[in-house]
Amino acid sequence: MGVVEFQNIKQENKIMVKLNYQSRGTENERIISPEEIINNFFTENATKISFYAKAFRIKEDKLTSLLKENREELDILNTDNFDLVLINYLLELEKSNPSLFNFNIESNKKSSEYMLNLLKYYTSVYPDVDFALAAGIAKIESGYRAQYMLSCNNIFGGMSNGKLIKYRTIEYGILRFIILLNDKYYAKGLNTVATIGRVYNPVINEEGQKIASPTWVTNVTKAIDEYQEMDQDISLEKIVLDS
Description:
Oligomer: single chain
Radius of gyration: 22 Å
Helix content: 40-55%
Order of helices and strands: EEEHHHHHHHHEEHHEEHH
């Protein structure tokens, strides 16, 4: 096996890559073309693209084609968080071109372990969100087994117009939960059970003030303890394998 070293260089206003490699005591080098760089990127990220295509219910080949067409605008070759770029692109795409997506509800027969692994993975994409807190809320809201909620791919009790929100896949539903926590709570400085609960599950106390439901706070706090020491390392490959 040779030793490979990559070095970015500029050639004719294009970013190229010089590939230095050693094999059997000799050193060689060649230029990797832009096409090779792009093809290598999509090969390396094929599992990720396939996973999100299934989560959002868009055809994988169509998503891949669109990503290639828009790669410069998305700057995908230079991002440190391709998951986030991909998620944001898909969220915008489902607004601008909804006909590309299948919005029918996919039956959820996944295990609680699988759902927890999704929480682990998504909180690594959105690192401000605490896994144990998210897992604790979901445990209290659905127990990862409430049949009607799971049939809606909704483990966190998200409501709209007085009705439980239905999500097309469990992967999409849990992603939406983490995005909700990230954008509507953590980004606003609401990062404890009490401050989140004041919005998530509020009650009016004897002084007429809105506070988090004490029962909800107690139950979520206990649930958090269950997940606090849980190993949070999870690979997307394992999630795909278990799906």
